[in-house]
What we know:
Layout: E1 13-16, E2 26-28, E3 36-37, E4 46-49, E5 54-56, E6 77-86, E7 116-129, E8 132-143, H1 146-164, H2 175-197, H3 207-234, H4 243-259, H5 270-277, H6 281-292, H7 294-301, H8 307-338
Antiparallel strand pairs: 1-4, 2-3, 2-6, 4-5, 6-8, 7-8
Amino acid sequence: MTWNPSDFNNTSGLHISPKDMWIPELIIHNAVGDTYELRTSNFMKLAISSNGFINWNTGGNTETSCKVDISRYPFDTQTCHILIGKSSSLDYELMMIPAAAKINTFLYDENENGEWELLDTSVGYHAINEQMTFLKCTLILKRRPLFYILNILLPVILLSLMNVLSFKLSINCGERMSYSVALFLTFIVLLNIVADEMPKVSKTISFLQLYINTQLAIGMFITTISVFLVHSTNSKTNDDVTGAVHAVYKFCKLCSKKQQVRPESPKGDDQHEDKYIKSGQCEKLEMEHVQQTPGSANAETNQSPSIVDAVNVIDDTLFWSFLMLFVLITIVFLLLCLF
């Protein structure tokens, strides 16, 4: 396929149809559906130069498969491959050599795709065995997360915070149960939306799904607690606190007492300071004080709070506990996705 241009009216090149010349049998092995053959594009002519160099720009539209990892969704980065190989020829019959180390992207418009951002490309070898190698074109894609942050992640975080705020509603308010149940159902709807948006992959689990399921479980637990508190409030014929509510109330009061700061002793009073330092001395002094004034102190200690006061103390303790749990789970989720 070489000639002297001066012998043919200075013709240095020509174009012919792929049907009139031998062309390599190249296929895309990981195409979705039927195997895509590159040599079926007969409308792309072969450019032949007088020195024997032949250039054939072929191609077409096809879909290829890609193994995805959705654990960091929607902040994930995917690495996809396109395998271009020979149908039956071995390496000693047809050798495939990449013309460049990267894929030519001069026809690629980065603003055209609003979901993915192309970070990097590469072209290398993929060996099946010693006598057959493929070309492995690699694409590194990063998902654009803004849409998912505004429509999925931010609503989930806000609803989780609103779920904790249910403890700030008065127990006498009839909207407390409807408020908790409405948030619980909203989490279920969001979970279905996330499941529809993500690829159907069972090998990896998305941290976002785990986060929503965790918040769903917390919402169910908060709703259950609200049911018992409302039931305990409305089922009592008197204001006395008994049973499980009284036990939880005592535990909450104990936790609140531990958080109080012990008063500092005056400077220079060594004897008063030793009373706070010595082990068990404070308890001994308190017991002596109770024995000296049994009428007033015992009456104050044994006095049972009203059911509304007890529930208010429980609600306040549960609010701060679930708020810290919400902040901790959210920080861990963001760290796993971003880093």
